[in-house]
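Predict the 3D structure for this chain.
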Amino acid sequence: MKKAKTKFLIGSLIITVTLVALAATGFQESKAYYLHVDEVYAMGNDAFNKRLKVRGDVVEGSIQTDTRPITFTIELNGATMPVRYIGTAPIPDTFKDGSQAVVEGKLLTNGTFEADHIQAKCASKYEGEGMEGGA
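Done. Predicted structure below.
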């Protein structure tokens, strides 16, 4: 009976350690640093080793939807970044020239950002909202 209890405890310990290790690995892989375009470039070579979320404004006329992957450029604070969208989710309706975008993915060594996720909002849609009838 004592031998069976020991085997059970060892088995339980192995399973617990494995689950904790898998959870920690998954957390590290899903973690993304949130930065502006200029802040990514300020990171230097460290930017290539991390999953990033980068915020910028979509440059007018840069969206190329006739190619796969879709390409466009974002800019913020005087810095621009070319983006390749390789994700499978549909592009948000609010993704347009001049919209604010957050792209998630990795910076390639050639300076292009390879995004697998895009979030966008049209800045003009939200300007002045709730400002009328001031109380």
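Residues 125-135 have pLDDT under 50 and may be disordered.
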